[in-house]
Design brief:
378 residues; alpha/beta; Quinone Oxidoreductase, Chain A, domain 1; Rossmann fold; 7-stranded mixed sheet; 10 helices; globular; disordered C terminus; binds NADP nicotinamide-adenine-dinucleotide phosphate
Length: 378
């Protein structure tokens, strides 16, 4: 990974002391830049002045951020609406308020929050709108909370707002070992829902521990195996894979069932437009909904409804609040695959893409990777 030093456009600032034991306030921030379509080793480490929060904003000192599938797509230029290169990736983070901007309650300083950012989270210091903050219970670690920000919101909303599952239902979760997948299977279990989950064989024992019936997604007769486990069809299928396999997902539904499509992972490595696979998927879903088949097909988008900002934020705060409460009660098991220092984001990316991990690869401030698995070798 290359190291560069650049001047940031924002005014530099120092960080207010969040706690009694804080050493000298930081004046330099570290951020990871995605300069273009690159292999993980092409990510750049940049050192910049710590930015200052503007009106209505806070500065978060990052305690945990993570690698989502979105960054794997973005480094290939394959995320549906990614910003132009170069940019700082990072879909979400947990951090402590280090400074408040004009119009923000100064009492927020020192408190810990989560924020959904889509990009920008892979930095030691991140400016976010104060209105976007969601409180993190003090009893949970930042890394554990991080595993459930974008993943927890996505899983909760798909289960309870889109599919509206009920106790006694059976659902199919594709990629049950992934970040969203592992949140989905646990939240479904808590709701009394039976889960059939697809995953590579190496993850099956862990999934059984979570009460999931695992099926290998490389099984040539995957559809037959899933049918055999739920001959009458299932209440919902959660499909992030997309491609032609989504037809099989729709056919697994029982009458009244709902397909919740939420990604096109199968086209991550396919050359061409980032938008074409998604638009093809939308056309398919629209066609199924137009036909009289008593089944429903939805595309879930975590950012849907963002134009009505107040309602969007309220929903997000309520849903993530429920997820964090379950985490604090010990009913949700956070799946931290590894803690990796921010400056080694390239290693974190390689690990997340290796197909060997269960749960989320978490990035932590440099020097704070203790308590977890050792950082992977470059
Ligand atoms: N629509 C939204 O608002 C929204 C929000 C959040 C996430 N997402 C989507 O959710 C998906 C999962 O994200 P994540 O961060 O949880 O990713 P992740 O932790 O990397 O997990 C990805 C999972 O997908 C499996 N997988 C990968 N390629 C596959 C394929 N071709 N066929 C079947 N399974 C495959 C992986 O299995 P192995 O480990 O065996 O490779 C793994 O279980 C992504 O597609 C992402 O874009 C959508």
């Amino acid at each position: 990974m290359r190291e560069t030093h650049t001047i940031e456009h924002r005014q530099p600032t120092t960080i207010a002391s969040p706690a009694e034991t804080t050493p000298a306030p930081a004046t330099r921030a570290t951020e990871i830049v995605l300069p273009g379509v690159v292999e993980p080793g092409g990510l750049e480490v940049r050192h910049v002045p710590v930015p200052a929060p503007g009106p209505g904003e806070v500065l978060l000192a990052m305690e945990a951020t993570g690698v989502s599938f979105a960054e794997q797509q973005m480094r290939r230029g394959k995320y549906y609406d990614q910003p132009p290169f170069p940019f700082v990736p990072g879909y979400d983070l947990v951090g402590r308020v280090a400074a408040t901007g004009p119009g923000v309650d100064p009492a927020l300083a020192g408190r810990r929050f989560a924020a959904l950012t889509k990009t920008g989270g892979w930095a030691s210091h991140v400016v976010v709108d104060a209105a976007d903050l969601v409180a993190v219970p003090e009893s949970v670690t930042s890394a554990d909370a991080e595993t459930l920000v974008v993943n927890g919101i996505t899983a909760w909303q798909m289960l309870h707002r889109t599919a509206k599952v009920e106790a006694g239902d059976t659902v199919v979760v594709l990629g049950a070992n992934g970040g969203v997948g592992s949140a989905l299977v646990q939240l479904a279990g808590i709701a009394g829902v039976r889960v059939i989950g697809t995953a590579s064989r190496r993850h099956h024992d862990k999934l059984r521990e979570l009460g999931v019936t695992p099926v290998d997604y490389r099984d040539p007769d995957l559809r037959g195996r899933l049918r055999g486990l739920a001959p009458g069809g299932v209440r919902a299928v959660f499909d992030h894979v997309g491609g032609d396999g989504v037809v099989d997902s729709f056919r697994l539904l029982a009458p009244g069932g709902t397909l919740v499509s939420y990604g096109t992972a199968s086209t991550r490595d396919v050359a061409g437009s980032s938008k074409a696979p998604v638009l093809k998927l939308f056309a398919r879903l629209a066609m199924w909904n137009a036909l009289p088949n008593s089944r429903h097909a939805h595309f879930f988008n975590i950012w849907a409804g963002r134009r009505r900002a107040d309602a969007f934020r309220e929903r997000l705060r309520a849903d993530l609040g429920q997820v964090f409460a379950l985490l604090a009660e010990g009913r949700l098991r956070p799946q931290v695959a590894a803690r990796v220092p921010l400056s080694r984001a390239a290693d974190a990316m390689r690990l997340a893409e290796s197909g060997t991990v269960a749960g989320k690869v978490v990035l932590v401030p440099d020097g704070e990777e203790r308590d977890g698995e050792p950082a992977p070798e470059a």
